[in-house]
Amino acid sequence: MLVQQPGMPGAVAAEGVPRIGVLPSGPRDLISDVPGVTVGHATLDDGDIQTGVTVVMPHDGDMFLRKVPAAAAVINGFGKSIGLVQLQELGVLETPLALTNTFSVGAIAASQIRAAVSCHPEIGRQWSTVNPLVFECNDGYLNDIQAMAVSAEHYAQACREAAVEFAQGSVGAGRGMSMFGFKGGIGSASRIATSTDGQRYVLGALVLANFGRMENLTVSGQPLGRRIVAQESNEPNEPNEEDERAAPEKGSIIMIIATDAPLDVRQLERVAKRSAAGLARTGSVYGHGSGDIALAFSSAWQVPHLASEPMPAVRMVHESMLDPLFDACAEAVEQAIVHALWRATTVAGREGHRREAFADAVPNWRALLANPHSSEQSS
């Protein structure tokens, strides 16, 4: 496997995005660096309708027949996801992971059920029912969420387009999302974890980012949001800008973690919890109104649906060797959040609401990030 070596912590990558941490990344710096994982989008961009669907495929086989071990960690539960109860009980995924807006959860869950039944008419009759798994964030500022525009065809399109190379930013489920007062959306990253016995594992993250107050934005440990606010203190404010900044945190983030490390369900839950470390480093306080949920799965082994098939015999990673994966999870999530912010493009949507791309709104971000006093010099 090709490995991207890190620069200095806080360095800016060649494509003009801050490079987080010290661990090397996979060749794409995407969740799809984990073998078998692909991602697809369907994006709705039509006036007041600014929304979509994103799917994460753990493998290219039959998800119902070949289930994947997984576990979730609810950091703050102000969310309307579906499928978490059975996931926590049985510890397996049996559909692709789907992300969308809050009011489209039901439509996507129905699509997942129909897709599974079309492949296996025995589901719900001779066989058990299928557990759809859909995560959401509220994109109602930019998107007319009440229109419930997302349909079964959009889910099918996202599944068809799943690939190892995929767009980030204002695409798919991220189309209408906001971050730290700017445009948010989909971000992804990967890191390589090396255990004490020299074994190398890939860990990838994908986030649906829709959270944060501007003054809390932190990048590579630097209080970038406070520097932006200080820079703008002498500039005219847009209507309601100050009111919006003073509003309580009520955004959300979904964090999907994939790894090729052979972990059991309990270990996966431990890894999922470490996503909160990466989230906190960017300035989140997991506010009262936020839905902050992480899910981790392993591509190293699968669980057969049919009891007549043998269960796999897998040698799991020893508990004392999990720290490198914890480090990789925190770093990959932090980097994925940064990618979501930097890769997003400006979007105008419902009733003229608009979110600016971060790089366009703060063109001197490099100076602000590098020099604590640059905002004073530029004012």
UniProtKB/TrEMBL annotation:
UniProt keyword list: Aminopeptidase, Hydrolase, Protease
Source taxon at top rank: Bacteria
InterPro entries linked: ArgJ-like_dom_sf (IPR016117), Peptidase_S58_DmpA (IPR005321)
A GO molecular-function annotation: aminopeptidase activity
CDD domains cross-referenced by the UniProt entry: DmpA (cd02253)
Pfam family, one: Peptidase_S58
Entry-linked PANTHER family: BLR5678 PROTEIN, D-AMINOPEPTIDASE
Protein family membership: Belongs to the peptidase S58 family.
Name of the protein in its database record: Aminopeptidase
Species in which this protein is naturally found: Trinickia dabaoshanensis
